[in-house]
Amino acid sequence: IQDNSLIENRKIKYTPSPVDIAEVSESALTIVYGYLANRNINFKSEIDEPPTPFVLADPVRIRDVLVNILGNAVKFTQDGGSITYRVTYQMMDDNRHMRAHFEVRDTGIGMSEDFIDHIFDEFSQESQDARTKYKGTGLGMAITKKYVELMGGTISVESRKGKGSTFTVEIPMEIRKQDESEKMELTPRDVDLKGLKILLAEDNELNAEIAIVQLEELGMDITWVKDGKEALDMFSSKPQGSFDLILMDVMMPNMNGYEATRAIRGLDGRGDALKIPIFAMTANAFAEDVQASLESGMNGHLSKPIVIEDVIKTILRNLDR
Question: Cys-Cys link to 220, which of 196, 248, 287, 301 (CB 3.0-4.6 A)?
Answer without folding.
Answer: 196
